[in-house]
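--- STAGE predict ---
source: upstream dedup step, 1 unique chain passed
mode: sequence only
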Amino acid sequence: MRRILVIIVTVLLVSTLYSQNKDLQSELVNRPWSKTDTSRSITFSLTFNTDSTFSFFTPTANNGDTVKVNYQIDESVITFPALGDCQVEGKYKFTINGDELIFQVQNDLCEGRKDVVNGTWKLIKTKNE
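--- STAGE serialize ---
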């Protein structure tokens, strides 16, 4: 009987964590986020897509083009791939609190990406929100 109870509790915990992860992803995906670097007067924007890509825009990169890149999420940690000047992946824990997306660097040797990604991003509200 005790063994069955342990199995049931384990299944409930795993399904709760899975559900929370899906809720977190649904709050992240298909919503535009922005962050302003006041020291350089640059605003970055970021949108995570359902196809495991994200679109990143900065007016100074690629002549103001939007870059679309793959990402991976494992629970509340997002992995950004090696790209451009960043020759290694970067891992960030993320949380969403209302209209704020907060990244905390876990492991990233790329200083440029770390400077941009780490910190608080704001939800860009649409007329429907």
